[in-house]
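Q: Predict the assembly, please.
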Amino acid sequence: MSGTYLGMPSFPRAAADSTRDMRLRGNLRHATHTIRAKRAQAVEELGDWAELREAGAALKERTLRHLDHYLEQLEAAVTAAGGVVHWAADADDANRIVTELVRETGESEVVKVKSMATQEIGLNEALAKAGISAYETDLAELIVQLGDDLPSHILVPAIHRNRDQIRDIFRKQMGSWGRAAPEGLSDDPAELAEAARLHLREKFLSAKVGISGANFMVAETGTLVVVESEGNGRMCLTLPETLISVVGIEKLVPTWQDLEVFLQTLPRSSTAERMNPYTSTWTGTTDDDGPSAFHLVLLDNGRTDALADTVGRQALRCIRCSACLNVCPVYERAGGHAYGSPYPGPIGAILTPQLRGVQSDLDASLPYASSLCGACYEVCPVAIDIPEVLVHLRERVVEGGTAVVRGQKTKIKPAKGHAAERALMRAARWAFDHPRAMRAGQRLAARGRRFTPRRLPVTAAGKAWSASRDLPRPAPQSFRDWWRHTRRDGGGSDAPRTGKESAE
Amino acid sequence: MRVALFITCINDTLYPGTGQAVVALLERLGVEVDFPQGQSCCGQPQFNTGYRREAEPLARRYARVFEGYDYIVVPSGSCAAMVRENYPRLGAEDVAGPMAATYELTEFLVDVLGVTDVGAYYPHTVTYHPTCHGLRMLGLGDRPRRLLEAVEGLRLRELEGAEECCGFGGTFAVKNPDVSAAMGADKARHIEETDAEAVCTVDNSCLMHIGGVLSRRGSAVRPVHLAEILASTEEAAR
Amino acid sequence: MNSRDIVLSRIRRALADVPRDGGPEETHVPRDYWQRHAVRNDAQRIDLLAENLSDYRAVVHRCASTELPVVIGRLLRDRGARRVVAPWAVPDGWLPGDVERVADSAGQSPRDLDAVDSVVTGCAVAVAETGTIVLDAGEDQGRRRISLVPDHHICVVHAPSQVVDSVPQALSRLDPARPQTWISGPSATSDIELDRVEGVHGPRRLDVVISSPGAG
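A: Predicted assembly structure:
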């Protein structure tokens, strides 16, 4: 695994490999099942969870529906508090702004707090090209960076690694990035955490530039909020002289008091804690406390395309808790890398195709990476109806239509490779809309049932089914024929009593 | 009370026994049931795969065929959920009445008829898998369990990870065969671990997948629709 | 067009379906959630705070305000702390005579702080339902970094006045213009197999001293 998402295979192809990786399956199963039970308990503790969820969804919806208003309010508040606001229409824009800002400090090293937005835009790679080393300081991000790997989970990017693998990565790689792993490092999580503490301490104490994202931005006050556990966030947010925060434009909440909803739902949904160990809030700069320069880079990069879609828009409510990943049976078995994006799991399956479009094979396969079981929607603390958006995006894939791409209204062609399926769906609809024809088909199938194999290695779909499952046999007589034969004179009617519809 | 049966296309073609069981069960409970022959498929396969336009005519057909009935009983959580939850998203006109009259079988028994003990006899060990659309879209809750617990002779076995999807998911099963198979294998393993003779659901579509996996594994556990258990009587068992 | 104009105009085009005259209020926000999850008297609220702090591995001590020097002195001695940083408003009397008091000053570097054994602060508010103490850079709390770099933090909570039930109550007491640190137990991580391990970059030992008015 090298650090790029470009050219990755479609979800089913990637999953064909990952579902056979028994160590990966074991790691994911262990981790997701551990957190599932804990989350349920943490949520259970709050008698008003449903009301918090409803309020959270509505607050985010209000923010999105008036995003321009709130962004301008935020910009004014941050500026008044001593911060500098930058706007980035896309990834290149954002990378250029951040690179310039770091160059102006004269530094060639930066420390980073875990940030989905900077992963999304490939900031580390852009900085590296400019000769600037970015050090990830979140434990899981460190594991990913040292292992030349890609994140596979929103909250725990190294969830695909178990303790043995992490020990091996630390032993092999820490030395070339800075302080080496202690002699005789074991796979005890506490020892591994201690090794990370020692390794990163040097970097924190000398860092002059910190780069972060943010969990929330308060429009009313210009306050940014970072929710974390380890203290690496606090280090990056308070010790450097310059702080640059790259934040998606949808991360807003209207007022300070509105945080009361999300500071209750986020920790319980993500780490299953009543409250995460550390939450930092800051408003611009404070004299003699923390960074003397604060830059906020507001990132679009496809978000306004999602905003333009009245069904897909709800994906922008996401507060990145990752509860939907932890509960998803597909994520658990396919793993995060199969989603080919920093946003894996159910939320990734609806976010990525909206941020990047549905033109590549990978992106067009993502809306189908779900059995529509609805477990994600059930746990989502901002009530994103993920199955609804998945189905909506499937329509965009197979039927095309109009969507906004990079701010431009664009006619989207149906994705390749769906022609046979489209024909089948049309034929099925025609048959279902002509019950007499369907009945004839059923009879034909019933007559041939002795010859129907339990495996069907002929068509692609037949092969896909038969590889792991036996086929059902058509019944000797359909229900409808049974009814006709046994109930001719009974209660059954051939046509509805309104008489508007014939059986044909 | 005018009651219609919406059999669903899968039951009609592959599992007519389930439909016959529903008719027998309802008639035993004194409900005269009608079967409008104009009915076909709810359109869920099309809708869930992205072919909303192909689903629309089927929704309109459903509305025409079932107009005027007080209750439309569906022995499938998934198809009932399609009608109740997704028809409004199709923008099909005049579906409100039939939509509201649509009940999944266990809802009809427990909520409309007010029965949990339907006088069934089924002297076997059974484990119950709550299928996703029944569980999460319709909110069937403990209705199926209450019905099963009231069946004479039936011993219910707890299923580990019961609320986790079996991996069917309609076209998901063939579009993502590896993930679907992995989910199915885990479900089958949990089912086998219960040592039950039969696994029961309110959806034959999921059972087709679960049964296919069990059969391929050479498992002795028999897939059976809840309606068939509820229709069983002591006389029939002899 | 600059990026600002591009982004804002994209947003306005994207929101063509939203009625603009009514302002944000056009989207109703139901606020039926609770302001607190139980009605508690002072003693119950303090007990819950202590319980929840302990649950996340903070070490909780309870004493009368007159006993603070004794309790803090013991905690520092047990730890073997020699150099202790404390903001100016922390009373001299809280620290034992045999430790070196290090001032919280603007010129201090992170490395200076790394050479300090412990930090003693007060707090702005404490939240019982979540086991959280909030520091807002008040005069007895100091700059954010002093409660971060040293490996041992002693935080004094004045009960009952500083203890609230819930997150909503805490937020309404706090001023967003001040930089804040909400602390719930010592630093921790769930990054290895989603299992919680205490002690990463922040102070690995957090002592919370809940002090009540009067003599012991």
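Chain B has a mean pLDDT of 95. The domain at 3-112 of chain B is CATH 3.40.50 (Rossmann fold).
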